[in-house]
Amino acid sequence: MRKIVNITVGGKVFRTTQETLDNFPNTRLGKLTHTSDEYDAETDSFIFDRNPDMFNKILDLYRLGEFHISSNICGSTLRKEMEYWQIPTTHIGECCIQHYFKYDDDMKVMQKLRKNFDDLDYTDIECKSSRYKRWMRKVWLTVDQPLSSIYARIYNYIFMTIVVLSMVSFVLGSHPSFRKEILSYDKLLMIIEFLDIEFFDNLNLNNSKEVMFATTMASPVLSKIDLFCMIFFSVELVVHFISCPIKKKFFTFPLNVLDPVLLTAMWTTFAFENNLEFMIEREALTTLYQIMKALVVLRLFRFFRIVKIYSGLKIIMITLSSSVKVLLLLFIAFVVAGIFFASFIYYAEFQVPDNFPTIFTGIWWAIVTMTTVGYGDMYPQSTYGHLVGASCAFFGILILSMPIAIVSTNFFAFYQKNKEREQQDQFKKDNPRDDVVESENRI
Ligand SMILES: [Zn+2]
């Protein structure tokens, strides 16, 4: 005779047989006996204070042999229920496993976002205890978080204007109209002929760019703008650092590392440009100057401070950093395919003189073709070459499109989750009471 078992879950009575429950003896329901704590002799049933809606699915495991999840159940509840009823993940049906893991993926995305958008701030306790800290907090928020107040917004506009100004001055500095002559061409020729200075001896007179940089310097207006920007950014860095609540963490933000490097480079080049004669006589210094001058290009990165306002930009960065694997795959595919097609084109065009002189030039051609850029500086001319070229272009589209689809899916996931995060943060801001416990627990 079948033995009926009564189970009351959250007030709802479920009826099943001992035979059914015996299907999974290592789970909580499989282990039930009349000596269990949950057994109530008066009603002859086992009483549990759990979610009755979920329990239907739990019982189905014993009936069907597989655990199937209804899609409207939250991932967190599901995990807690499964843990309570001692159901291992391996019992989940294949059709439902994706639903189970989707929660993990979503949580990972959310954590990554929170980590990236979590700004440094003073704690409430610090602010209450000292007046200095309260002031520093104001300075910090103004300098670091443009969305924190109206002053911070205004300051940020000023900052951005100066960033743009410094960029414009950098770009204009390469145009002949914005350069002042410090040495005439004839004098330059004389120096090269009569003086033994390595810097001038190495100069290529056929290269107009080299000649321009040797005979002219940035116009006084541009130099003054540059000096102003440098002073501003130096003061900004000092204020930014001094007001930082956790100094150790200041340099964990890439943009904050950039600033000291950039300022060192800018001040060094500034010092060199004001002591040209001293520098030109020493070759090592000239090399150092050129390196520093190249570093100054990094000033363009300062513009990325704008990510503090437009979260979308930050999402792009997060997407790229979490798509490293796929991008690496793309890179490897490109390198392998590049070498492959380069070798083919090299031999296919063997009869055409001067075309594809080495396999190296073939790799350049293959990558330019696969990315659909096609500069046209090199192209196959023989019939075999055309065949290789066509398959290279076709293959390029294929390997390019697949990883890019994954990157854009990642981007969409981050974008969507970030929207939810922003809404949630806004809600917490508007209802500060709910937040009290959390803010006290922080740090
Ligand atoms: Zn299923």
From TrEMBL:
Keywords: Ion channel, Ion transport, Membrane, Potassium, Potassium channel, Potassium transport, Transmembrane, Transmembrane helix, Transport, Voltage-gated channel. Its main location: membrane. Residues 423-443 are annotated as: Disordered. GO terms for molecular function: voltage-gated potassium channel activity. Pfam families: BTB_2, Ion_trans. It is found in: Membrane. Residues 3-101 form the BTB domain. The keyword Transmembrane applies. It is a multi-pass membrane protein. This is BTB domain-containing protein.
